[in-house]
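Predict the structure of Helix-turn-helix domain containing protein.
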Amino acid sequence: MVSGQEPGATGHERRRRQTEEHLLAAAGRLFLRDGYARTSLAAVAREAGVAERTVYVRFATKAALFQRVIETAIVGDVDPVPLPERGWSVAAMSAPTLAERVHAFADGVATMNERLGPLMAVNGEVEPAEPSVQESAARWREATRVFLEVFWGAAVRDGLLAKDADVAWLASVGAMLSAAESRLLAARTFGWDRDEYAVWLERTWMRLAAASALVPGTD
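Done. Here is the predicted structure for Helix-turn-helix domain containing protein.
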């Protein structure tokens, strides 16, 4: 979805989202180029070609701005559409076969991590120093695990996965494999591009699904 063309959005809402997209793109460039410590809200305003007040009105702190850059990288845009309602998420929950669901999920995660991956080095600098960023990262990691638990639970419910499959184990392992840090490590270690990572993720999840009934459940 292109945020400037969202059905039902007013002209004011479209302009507000376009301004936010512009600011976040400028901030993302600076965070990647100069690092977190050397990027100021004033520098973001200069990079975006807007008044400093425009930045401060939307983001009270640099940490808040960085969190929003990360959040936008996760979902892909500034539209108010929750991740579970995005197209690839819906396909991953509703496709008729397990293979199709896993393919949709792996493909969506790979695309998401292409946006997130470059920011992980910056996040490593920010997270230990900014409690609000640390808390936000913890929430997103837990949300990923919960989302995967819902995903595998739906597969069991729909008869696509054995009833005795260890859903909690699948969700925990899947959350680690799909983390942006794992994508970055795969690129550094094996030189994998986005498509190679997606194929690996898909194959690994299918093999984990086949083995899940053999793994003891956690108490």
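Confidence is low (pLDDT under 50) at residues 1-5, 215-219.
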